[in-house]
Amino acid sequence: MSAMTADGSRDISALARLRDVLRRLYHGRTPAAFRFQLVAVIIDLAIIAFFIATPVLQDKPSFLWLDYSVAALVAADMIARLLASNDMLRLIRQPTSWVDGFILLTLLMPTAFANLAFLRILRLWSLSRSGSLWRHFEMRGLKPWREASQAVINLLTFLFVVTGFVYTFFFRTQAGLEGYIDALYFTVATVTTTGFGDIVLPGIAGKLTAIATMIIGISLFVKLAQAIFRPTKVFFPCPQCGLQRHEPDAVHCKACGHVLNIPDEGN
């Protein structure tokens, strides 16, 4: 009985050490953690590039091999982030975890979820909510560009989601690359309200898709313009009310009046 307890203790100790290492890698600020997080971001961008290229690659003999390889990477990242978290249940309840779980499901069952594969690009949105990505901005002195960069990522995510939707339900009969380019061209022309009219979606569903694309696209463009041209603010959560954006020289929170102690980025 004592041997089993000892073995169990050793197993628990090994798991605790693994979680500690993963916490340092995912959330740390050491050079080793920085290198690990940078490699993780690069791998994420490569995965996103694969998702964008899926319409062109899905007829290739090697597509399933690539698909399952990406599934293994996504699953490993999800497990590692869970182990690195101090509150697993809270992490599981976050929308980014739901998105990653759905993406993993479409990768494991590519045939059954073929019509929903365009939603995999939401991984880009999930990446934009990653603290490690913006930590690199802070370390390189690019913190003021965080909001504008997030707005760009949101716009790109929307463009590629709509492009994938339009390709899947309206241009699927065309050749892979040609059909995808037509879908992207229609999406950009609609979002920018250019409206050349040389490519239109048929039927009521096509008109509703164009209307929704224009409305949401304009809203995202306005958000991007605001992020670029309005006065720069810093991200510093108020300890009292949680308001995160403040003027760089703010002494009190404008929402609740709590005294702030915003660090000077020049020091």
TrEMBL record:
- Record's protein name: Ion transporter
Q: List the Gene Ontology MF annotations in alphabetical order.
A: voltage-gated potassium channel activity
Q: Where in the cell is it found?
A: Membrane
Keyword entries, A-Z: Ion channel, Ion transport, Membrane, Transmembrane, Transmembrane helix, Transport
Mind telling me which residue stretches traverse the membrane in this protein? 32-53, 65-84, 96-122, 151-171, 183-204, 210-229
- Top-rank taxon, per record: Bacteria
Keyword Transmembrane helix listed: yes
Q: Name one GO cellular component term.
A: voltage-gated potassium channel complex
Biological process, per Gene Ontology? action potential
Question: How is this protein situated with respect to the membrane?
Answer: Multi-pass membrane protein
Gene3D superfamilies attached to this UniProt entry? 1.10.287.70
Q: What is the species listed in this Swiss-Prot or TrEMBL entry? A: Mesorhizobium amorphae CCNWGS0123
Domain (Potassium channel) spans 158-228
Q: Which InterPro entries match?
A: K_chnl_dom, K_chnl_volt-dep_EAG/ELK/ERG, VG_K_chnl
